Amino acid sequence: MSELNLRELHNTEFPVPNDLQSNVAITSLSKIYNWSRRSSMWPLLFGLACCAIEMIATAASRYDLSRFGMEVLRGSPRQSDLMIVSGTVTKKMVVPIVRLYNQMPEPKYVLAMGACASGGGPFKEGYNVVSGIDKYVPVDVYVPGCPPTPQALLFGLIALQKKIDGQSLANFDDVPWYGVGPSEAVPVPVLGPDIIDPRQMELIRRAAEAAVEGQPIGKREAPKRQEAAAPAKQAAVAKTADSADGEAVAADGDIDPKKARLMKKREEMLARKRAREAAKKAQG
Q1: Domain carrying residue 262
Q2: In terms of CB atoms within 10 Å, which of 56, 77, 207, 246 comes out highest?
């Protein structure tokens, strides 16, 4: 557990006599409360994939999470403050993960360890992999890597401690668990042919009703062709012989006299050019 420097606590608007500075300290409730929480974070012990091996190595003697007061890896969510999602989150596993998160007492935090937990990783396009655990539970710290090293996990834990130090008990938006009324639980996803987020049930219901009525559901359909009133009024579009020009004739089939003169001049120029090239070949 990190040591508390009493000298830092004396920098307040209330002066402390010199003879009492070694025994008395003045600080805010938020600061001393956050110091106690950040120095005794108990992670929830579970692993999902290869990132769990790095998490285990971080807790071993070489890196030693005990320096941060986080060596007590609990096997019960009701005794944990921090959920480390270490590894690939499948659609089958996200259901118990959300259930475990709801069982954790507040204040609670989530750390997404590795590329898979953060955004799906190399399995992002897989049919059974969730593209990030933050789609279902709020994530406080992301640790990149595939898998991240123990040093990276330690850096993420230090970043979480800094975030806790900046929280204030007076701001209910900053610490919602001290607000008015109970906190709402995160909806547990429904696992069926594909995973369903209960927060999107209204959208799913409207899509199902549209399907029953035979209406398109998120599909782009080609516009219907409008029938012409009379064949004589149909627009006759034709391309000129020169592909670079690409100009169309008028709708009634008559060519503009100005365009006709330009086309005639262009054909004469092309004819003269071909004649010169033929003459050069004959002389050569």
Answers
A1: 235-283
A2: 77
